[in-house]
Amino acid sequence: MKTVQTHRVDVDVPRVVTPRRAKPRRASPSARQQRRAAFMFLAPACIMVAIYVVWPIISSLSLSLYNWDGMTEKTFVGLANYVELFHAPTFYTALRNNVLWLVLFMLSPPMGLAIALYLNQAVRGIRFVKSLFFAPFVLSGVVVGLIFSWFYDPTFGLLKVILGHGMPVLGDPRYVTFGIIFAALWPQTAYCMILYLTGLTSLNAEQLEAARMEGAKGWAMLWHVVLPQLRPTTFMAIVVTVIGALRSFDLIAVMSGGGPFESSTVLAYYMYDQAIKYYRLGYSAAIAVVLFAIVLVYIVFQLRRMVREEQ
């Protein structure tokens, strides 16, 4: 009887090595202490923002869904305030005036830049000249409104002296908005000038010197060397100018009171008018929500644009 011998063949099977999960490293005591210190420093600011920014926004959104005069019980009306708002002719007049404010207010950043470039010189007496240009910014809006109300007065104002005859700027629906915007440009240009003066002090001196060695001067120096370095300052000036144009209130209240015939009213003044004069707090909150949405959309657009340019 024959025996069959079987040969054993060893086959090397590769082992599957499963990687060990790395144990999460516990933060060192010093790192935990740094995070705790950072949180403690940020906590007061976060609390203030939550109380004075986030909570009023939420309260306005909630109030806009009610009919309330500030004294009696609130009545839920849903979107009725928004429906009434979008059918009110005064709303579109105020919105058109806000757009006009926005367009003409865009003159303040380039004018502020031009004045800042003029004042950014090391000459004798330039500090006194800077203080003269800075003065409109520290004046109250009420004071600026009174000054220009006297300036426009058709009986004794300086405008009458310049033109040779009286012109009722604040009493004519065709000119009243332009007259108020011209008055508001005075302090706004001073504010943009301050921003640009601050930005000019932080310019890279090496880039400026290299550009001079390459022969750049005048407009070429400004456009290709100075303005790119002032981009963050320009962004801030534009955002502040847009917000100032959309929340314009004090000069309108002092100079025209929204008139004549509500021709100079804007959304901020329309909101005040409905809340204080007519006790329509829910309707006023709806106007505030619309104004906030317009500002928010613009700021988000500008931030995304700035991030794309930086990338």
From TrEMBL:
Domain ABC transmembrane type-1: 94-302
Bilayer topology annotation: Multi-pass membrane protein
Major location category of this protein: membrane
CDD domains: TM_PBP2 (cd06261)
The keyword Membrane is assigned to this record: yes
Protein name from the UniProt record: Melibiose/raffinose/stachyose import permease protein MelD
GO biological process: transmembrane transport
One Gene Ontology CC term in the entry: plasma membrane
Organism, as annotated: Paraburkholderia saeva
Pfam families reported in the protein's UniProt record: BPD_transp_1
UniProt subcellular location: Cell membrane
